[in-house]
Amino acid sequence: MAWGSIGCYAGLIFTVSSWRVLTPDKINGSTSSNWATHSVIGGKDKSEYTGPGLKSYQFEIQLVSKLGVNPRKIFDALMKHCEAGTIDYFILNNKPMSQNPFKLTKVTTGWGAVHRFWGLKDGKVTLTLEEYAP
Fold first, then answer.
1. Tell me, what's the pLDDT at 5?
2. Is-contact 114 69, C-beta < 8 A?
3. Structural domain span for residue 25
4. 85 with 105: CB under 8 angstroms?
5. DSSP states of 3-47 as a string?
6. What is the chain's mean pLDDT, rounded?
7. pLDDT tens digits for 46-82?
8. What InterPro entries does UniProt report for this protein, alphabetically (predicted)?
9. pLDDT digit string (tens) for 9-24?
10. Nearest to 128 by CA among 13, 28, 36, 7
11. Which residues contact 126 (CB under 8 A, 6 or more apart)?
């Protein structure tokens, strides 16, 4: 990762510097466990733990051209990764968020101001990631 970076996913490097700001915000994560239920004649069903569930994360990224990013270019790249089924590690603070990589399951874009000559000036993208266990 580059100097000033705080993490990355799918070639997108989260950075904070005097010339570029691209950081995840409002990160929400979840995990679960998997259970099987077995019916018992004349009694209550029995539960059996079968293993850990998949982790998932959702977060926003504010994209502002004045802060050194091209919102439209990032929108297009993330949508391409989502549609292609890209699998990559989600890293924050130089630490992977799981021992497994993550798949990009959803990209939601919010367009801000569009300038006549310079195109999209700002926007917001929300990413939904789910752990990929091969």
1. 79
2. no
3. 5-131
4. no
5. TTEEEEETTEEEEESSS-EE-EEEEEEE--EEEEEE--TTS--EE
6. 89
7. 999 999 999 999 999 998 888 888 888 998 999 999 9
8. Myoviridae_GpU
9. 998 888 888 788 888 8
10. 28
11. 58, 59, 60, 61, 106, 107, 108, 109, 110
Cβ pair 45, 35 in contact under 8 A: no
Q: How far apart are CA 129 and CA 57, in angstroms?
A: 5
Nearest to 108 by CA among 84, 128, 81, 86: 128
C-alpha closest to that of 98 among 108, 90, 88, 106 = 90
CA nearest to 133, candidates 92, 96, 102:
102
Phi-psi region of 114 (alpha: psi -120 to 50; beta: other; left: phi over 0): beta
Q: Residue 7: which of 93, 115, 116 has the closest Cα?
A: 93
Task: Report the alpha-carbon distance of residue 127 to residue 10 in Å, rounded.
Answer: 11
Q: Which two tokens stand for residue 76?
A: 């297009």
Residue type, 89: Y
CA gap 109, 123 in Å, rounded: 7
How many structural domains compose the chain?
A: 1
